[in-house]
Amino acid sequence: MRAKVMPDGRMSLPADLRKRHGLGNGGEVIVEDVGDAIVLRTLDQVVARAGYEPPVDWRPRRRLGRGFPGRPRPRGRARVTRFVLDASALLALLLGERGADTVKAGLDGSVMTTVNLAEVISYYAKLGAGRHDIEMLLRPLPIRLFPVDAALSYDAGLLRSITLEGGLSLGDRYCLALAKREGVPALTTERRWPDIAGAAGVTIALIR
After folding, report:
1. Is residue 192 part of a domain?
2. H or E element: which one contains 31?
3. In a domain, 9, yes or no
4. Which H or E run includes 45?
5. 88-110 confidence digits (pLDDT tens)
6. Containing structural domain, residue 76
């Protein structure tokens, strides 16, 4: 099957192919550069791949599941940040836990600090997963990664006195600091967060 790519980057897919993959009325696809090919997937297909089981013996008891490095950013209008993701929220999605649909609905337009990404990577590394397999699971997700800088580090560090009693971690504080900077809710499973939301100047959205 062939599809023509126009000089301005537009591409027309056959009608039967669009209908078969839920794009009959149009929609967005995730474009992934896999080195020797360009792969198009709908968001539903990207999330479904979180159930992919790699051929190594590190699979957890439950389901597995930027830009991420290697995935080109889409052209056109700038993406609007809707949520800042905590590691617990992304893991709920990847593991098919309660609240996963809430995360999925806000995934395209979400942002996450690289510190919280490290927490997700650590979860799979603890199970014995290698870097290649973890990247296979996470890279296609349409999450914009935010590298931490000195300014965000100060913001996160200064939240310690507010969050200490609630037992929040450094990763938690980075998530809250970015949510405050972006002016959008922080998406999490952590029920302690709403107790300090007002003092931290952040809106918290619990997924369950």
Report:
1. yes
2. strand 29-33
3. no
4. helix 43-48
5. 999 999 888 899 999 988 888 89
6. 14-206
- Dig out the tokens for 195 from the structure: 């107790």
pLDDT digits (tens, 9 = 90+) for 72-89: 444 554 556 899 999 999
pLDDT of residue 193: 95
DSSP codes of every residue in 49-92: GGG---SSTT--SS----PPTT-PPPPSSPPPP-EEE-HHHHHH
Q: What confidence category does residue 31 fall into, taking pLDDT thresholds of 50, 70 and 90?
A: confident
Is residue 22 in some structural domain? yes
pLDDT value at 33 more than 50:
yes
Q: Cα(151)–Cα(105) distance, rounded to whole angstroms?
A: 30
> Is 7 inside any structural domain?
no
Provide the domain count of the chain. 1
- Give the CATH number of the domain where residue 43 resides: 3.40.50.1010
